[in-house]
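Researcher: If convenient, please comment on what follows.
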Amino acid sequence: MVEAKETNRVGIVLVSHSKEVADSVAQLAAGLAGVPDAPVAGAGGRPDGGLGTSEELIVEAARRVDQGAGVALLVDLGSAVLTVKTLLAEGDELPEPARLVDAPLIEGAVAAVVTAAGGGDLAAVAAAAEEAYTYRKV
């Protein structure tokens, strides 16, 4: 009998200045994608519960969702981008490979989770999230 090889999925970290926003978007994305066990986590706010971003919380979330296929990081606002870019430049705290994805937080998160759940690699997950910029609402 041949054992089925387990497929590792790309992990997704949602970085927001608010813990509640990051966690809620993670829950929403997993729910809308129909993947309750999706490797997606919020990394929002400061360790003291205040607004802001935290390298410590981002690294912790990335390690939690890492399944060996890479980690996509989606962010909300400017300083979150800078925090993630700093972590990527340092190169030793985030799981490899890790990638900052230029995508809208909510729509991008849903597209990323759906693509990761379908077995997409890091490039495919990033492309799906980035494509969310083209979603028209009117």
